[in-house]
Amino acid sequence: MCGIIGYTGKKLNAKNTVIAGLKNLEYRGYDSSGIAVNEDGNINLYKAHGKISNLENSLNGRDVLSSTAIAHTRWATHGEPNETNAHPHKCGSITLVHNGIIENYVELKNELLKNGVTFKSETDTEVACAYINYIYITEKNKIKCLAKACSIFRGSYAFAIIFDDEKDTIYATRKDSPLIVGLSDEGNFAASDVSAILDFTNKYILLEHGEFAKITKDDVKIFDGSENILEKEVKTATWSATEYKKNGYDHFMLKEINEQPDVIEKIFSRYLENPNYNEIDFSKFDAIHIVACGSAMHAGMVGKYLFQNYANIPVTVDIASEYRYSTQSITTSTLVIIISQSGETADSLAALRLAKDKGATTLGIVNAVGSTIAREADICIYTYAGPEIAVATTKGYTSQVAILSTLVINAMKQNSMLSNDLLNEIKNDFNNISSILKDIIKNKDIYVNAAKKIYEKNDLFFIGRGIDYAVCMEGSLKLKEISYMHSEAYAAGELKHGTISLIENGTPVIAVATNDDLYEKTISNIKETKARGAYSIFITTSNFDSSSFEDFSDISVILPKTTEFCQAIVVSCFLQLLAYEVAKLRNCDIDKPKNLAKSVTVE
Ligand code: AGP
Known about the structure:
Elements: E1 3-9, H1 14-23, E2 32-39, E3 42-49, H2 52-58, E4 68-74, E5 89-91, E6 94-99, H3 105-114, H4 124-136, H5 142-152, E7 157-163, E8 166-175, E9 180-183, E10 187-191, E11 203-206, E12 212-216, E13 219-223, E14 235-236, H6 252-273, E15 287-292, H7 294-310, E16 315-319, H8 320-323, E17 334-340, H9 346-357, E18 361-366, H10 372-376, E19 379-382, H11 395-414, H12 420-442, H13 444-454, E20 459-464, H14 467-483, E21 486-491, E22 508-513, H15 519-530, E23 535-541, E24 555-559, H16 567-585
Parallel strand pairs: 15-16, 15-17, 17-18, 18-19, 20-21, 20-22, 22-23, 23-24
Antiparallel strand pairs: 1-4, 1-10, 2-3, 2-4, 5-6, 6-7, 7-8, 8-12, 9-10, 9-11, 11-14, 12-13
Helix pairs in contact: 3-4, 4-5, 6-11, 6-12, 6-16, 7-11, 7-14, 12-16, 13-16, 14-16
The structure holds 2-deoxy-2-amino glucitol-6-phosphate.
């Protein structure tokens, strides 16, 4: 996902300020970057393909003295990653950076071409820039010019814009893509998220759709499209800049894996201190839909298993980008749970809005405080996992599972399905989860040795049943997205219905079996793969008799047994570490895997 930062200040340090801010946005994933600076009376653009260090080199140490600058990291949507397509784009008297997709850019481009406008890039952004310039020729009121252009644009956008005739002012507006306005004594900002400005200020304003910011070095005004000034709350970020640093870890992903014991313990202790924490009256609903993308969807699969097997509540889980094709099932008696770490995922936001249009009650399980999904959902439960910088989610996912676990426990109480014995077991797990996870992390040899056995393979399979299948789905995604090793997660009972044909001599199969009732069947499935030459890594729990493991397992990993309200978190922590070590052995860019973005704000 693209990153935006603009700054206008009282000193001539705008270039260094926005470059520093841009580096705090690297985690969003990008393939090129650029900067526009108000320099010696001109708006000069500098762009580079690849890392921000390439952009800095393109400035070849020039001490660009500027009071105002806008900068951008681009995650390519239209047009390949290269310098020409990199932002900022300048058309006539307009210079801008953009996050999002202008869906009607082709028709707008054709209209502009007929009016003699020429283009250098393949991007929708350059079209948006040229269209704003086209309107500005006749509408010289900048807010009204932007409002008119935005009324014509379809799709998503966050813009930071500089007009040639007002070079020390930044205008900003957004629809669906995130954008905030940062405030400080030294100057003011427009940025994609708080992480970009925390080195300079923790004060910010959330810009809403249809609002236009006029930002100067000592003033910020927010207007509506008719140029009426709006009163906006100034918020204070609760996260410190250090949370956006690695703090001694080799990678953000490893730091965030290590934060899980504390994050999960905090979620469960909040529940133990207030058992009505996140109380929702499930009896009001005749259906629960969990809707999300990627790992968040995998967390939803764990939630579905727990809701159905412990609270006797039927749940469906949908991939957010597919949900819109099953609208007939959404009614005013439906609870739609949208799970999103970033709270800005376009597919999940679209599903949320669809559910609201259908009259459903919407619940967001979100990490990013103040994000769009958090604000638009009828109810929002924050995971409070803290900033997650690595593109591959770890604490974001396990904190979602933890919240879902507490929701299911509340549902069980409402349905009088929670026995005292089970509640006591759960409380015991909640009190021990931190030390359980710390021990898994500490036993490095186990996951390092397992990683050494598989990292040179090209294909790998995960198999499990029930909740273990949901965990396998997440384990497979983690491995794929950071190590680029192809893997598939399969319901253990399903592998023999076709895909087992891919098992060859030495093909790694990671089998997860923690559920008492499904254990024997999963062992049978492992043996089916072993019979065809598979190299099996068996992940199970301490309650099973390990004497026979060698019959079907090349590596056995025995994890602590917990109730199923914690088991997925325990196994997932191990699989995260396994994926991390495989990626290290394969020399991958663990925090910023190729082609990926931390939050996908385009559909
Ligand atoms: C997880 O490691 C991936 N980065 C991705 O699948 C992610 O979970 C998905 O894009 C959803 O993101 P969200 O939770 O911010 O909505």
